[in-house]
Design goal:
105 residues, mainly alpha, two-stranded antiparallel sheet, 47% helix, 4% strand
């Protein structure tokens, strides 16, 4: 068997590569990537905000009877000011809390 590649080799020229952002396809790809990133960030922010609003609404609906009962049992305001004798005591500073420690691997 003879090898046909033993003849004179012709030097192949490598094409000059331009940076990606200097080509039309590179610019279009960068713009598309930026749009996807922006839309993703806006969607994430919107989902976080609407989730918070939904949880607040659910919390208010669950605690409406408790709030109604507290409002009827205590006179919390008198003349537009907080009634210190009827309102629950508020601590001056919150008690220090320890961080939760995870157990397991």
């Amino acid at each position: 068997m003879t090898d046909h590649t033993t003849g004179p080799r012709v030097a192949t020229q490598t094409a000059h590569r331009r940076p990606l952002l200097q080509t039309l396809y590179g610019k279009l790809a960068a713009i598309l990537f930026g749009l996807f990133l922006l839309i993703g960030l806006l969607y994430t922010a919107w989902m976080i905000r609407t989730s918070q609003l939904y949880l607040q609404a659910v919390n208010q609906k669950l605690n409406i009877n408790l709030a109604r009962r507290l409002a009827t049992e205590r006179i919390l305001f008198s003349d537009g000011r907080i009634n210190p004798r009827r309102s629950p005591a508020v601590p001056a500073s919150p008690a220090p809390s320890r961080p939760c420690r995870r157990r397991g691997p």
